[in-house]
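## retry 2 of 3
previous attempt timed out at serialization; input unchanged, resubmitting
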Amino acid sequence: MKGAHGKYLDVNLTSRTIGEYTIPDSWRQRLLGGKGLAARLLLEELPERVDPFGPENLLVFATGPFQGTGVVGGGRHAVLAVSPKTGAVADSYAGGHFGHELGRSGFDGIIVRGRAAEPVLLTLLDGKAELVPASDLWGRGTGETEKTLVARYPGSRVSSIGPAGEILVSQACIINDRTRSAGRPGLGAVMGSKLLKAVVVRGRIEKTLHDPDRFADERAEHAKSYINEGWKGFGEYGTGSGLVWLSEQGILPTDNFREGTFDQAEAIGGERMHDTILVGRDTCAGCPIRCKRIVKTAFDGVDVLPDFGGPEYETLAAFGSLCHNGNLAAIALANQLCNDYGLDTISAGVAVAFLMEASEKGLIDEEIAWGDPMAIVGVVHALARREGIGDRLADGLEIYAREIGADFAMTIKGAELPMHEPRGKQGMGLSYATTPRGASHLEGMHDSMLERDNPCPELGVTQTYSRFTLLDKIEPSIVFENLRSFTNSLVLCCFTMSETGPGYNVPAIRSLLEAATGLKVDAAEMQAIGARAYALLRLLSARAGHTRETDGLPTRFAEPLPRGASAGHPIPAKDMKAAVAAYYKARGYSGRGPTVKTLRALGLDDCTEWVGRGTA
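## retry succeeded, writing output
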């Protein structure tokens, strides 16, 4: 199969040895790359029971067929490891330029094993890898780390951790290009546990493509499809452009998910940012959309610098409406602090909102008032430094909630919820409940996609659905989970995939895949590739003890939203339990995930030996 280097860099930090891990061609044909291939590798190489912070955990950086080729949306990479939040393998994704550089490194990914004796960084420059002492960088923020390393290794791209990852804050993430985050599962803390400060990559090795001329022509035509008024508007106002609309729809997470409407939404939306603090736009490798924000402002005497980009939708909602905060400058500062500390903004925002509600209910001694921008910034500092209440939060929000007797931690399997309200997107709620990663908005459908006529005929989704229904969405939920899982195995930006409606562009992407690799992938095989990747993550989740009984939503979602366009519409626990049971049946899963029969039907015969491994 073309479009790949066929090997991973294999780094053992304990023994300080570096080798190569050959990827079987059968794995690449069935799983492509990214999430699917990395999950297969971890299934093969990980012990059955793993301490997330132990040397036996593996940290994998993964690319797919499009990295290094300049395809629109291909400036991404995946990172996988056993998560300190869930105890199971979780996947995370980041855009920017690091993935493009890794795609030209001569390797399709990097496996990091063991634990270094002292802080180190890994350099992969023009195909040659080396472990280099990094004690001089330990304790520095990601901004200073990247500036130092780019000066030291000109032309390189850097993926690093900040102080939060170094001290094993479970909400820590991995930052590349200073502004892009592989967030949510806590993989920055995993990297910190290995004393790996940074990975530096400079790539000049091009992949061999199946049909280079056809690929170049189709890549150019594909890029042109993003030059129109619709994409221009998205680029101009960014992901935050939907924030006000979500509030109008009653599904903007507000006050720790007690409400879905925020009265100050316009003060923190993409349009307001554009008209006030936006000073530029950034982009990922090969992408003409330029949706990334660059802002400049100040809050409480602290400058917010363009170096750290600007807040995207998830961050605007997490530090904004979720905390009842309408101060855009404070949100921008919190975003900058998180990027420099190496802290996930969604996780941090959910933690702050939890503390605000806990303070309101008298469950903690600290006074942390709703909407207090100073308190938001203060908690970010405390969490990243493990100071005061931040030290207790840093071991995991779900753990801390149990300690103080709080039943309103907005987590699933230990992972904080992203900024999408399932009572008004109930099919997404099913994906939240069942995903092996913990709640994820990057794998599953957004119900509003299905409110149009004949949403996706190629994939058999021809019915119009209400976003307030649940039990009728089992099949479409699986269809779009598989599609997103396929996307994450390509490692392609979901914003560049038009998955429904007249702009549906998935066949064009499959044609690009054929030109790059030689693989002919029709709609059915695309679904199968996605289902394989999903099944592998579910196998790994079962090994960690997750079963159908651990699937569900926080109890808050059994209560109706009190006002707004989505008022009412609770998700009773019995309805979700019935939906989960139907979902498992439709996927061909037992209560612990894929069965031998299902794996064989997916062409994963070589994975059947892992069925039933681990104990619940």
